[in-house]
C-alpha cells in the first residue's frame, strides 16, 4: 500500500509540514510514503478547465501521478480564519476523480491554539463531493502544534500525558488508514473491472 501525505500550508517551514514529517515516520505499515508540500510548487489556480492544470511549467503532471499511485491520502491543513487553506482546496479541485475515487483520506487540522474543528467540518462538507475521496470517520486535530511532535526520535516524557495521548491517537489513526486502504482497494478493483452500467453518468456527487 502506498501513502501520499499532502500538507496544505502556504508557508514554508510550516507546522503543517512538521506534522507531515512526523506522520510519515510513523506510517510504518505502508510500503511507500510520499509527501507533497503544496507551497513549494507553483500550481495554477483552478479555473474549471482541464488544460489549465497542464499549462507550461505546471507541476501538476508530477503531482497528479503521485495522487494516482497512492492507495491512501493524508490531507493536512492549517486553520486560517476558521477555514482550510486555499492551497489545499485548490489541490482538491484539481484532482481527477478517476485517480481519487474510493481512496481513503485521513483529515488533519493543525492549529496554534485550541480550536481546529472548523477546517475538518469544512473539508467533510465541501471538499469530497466530486473527487469521491472517502474520509475516515476519525480525524486528527493537532492543537497547540508548536508545543508537540517536536522530538520525533525521543520518547515522550512520562509526565507529558497530553502528548503521549496524542501520539497514541496518531498511531491508531494511521493503523485504521492502512486498514481502509486495503479494504477499499477491492472496491476500486471492482469499480474498474466490473463497472456498474452507465456508472460514468454518476461520476459526480449529487
UniProtKB/TrEMBL annotation:
The keyword Ribonucleoprotein does not apply. Keywords: Flavoprotein, FMN. The keyword Transferase does not apply. GO terms for molecular function: FMN binding; oxidoreductase activity. Pfam families: FMN_red. InterPro entries: Flavoprotein-like_sf, FMN_Rdtase-like_dom, NAD(P)H-dep_reductase. Residues 1-144 form the NADPH-dependent FMN reductase-like domain. This is Putative flavoprotein. It comes from Shewanella psychrophila.
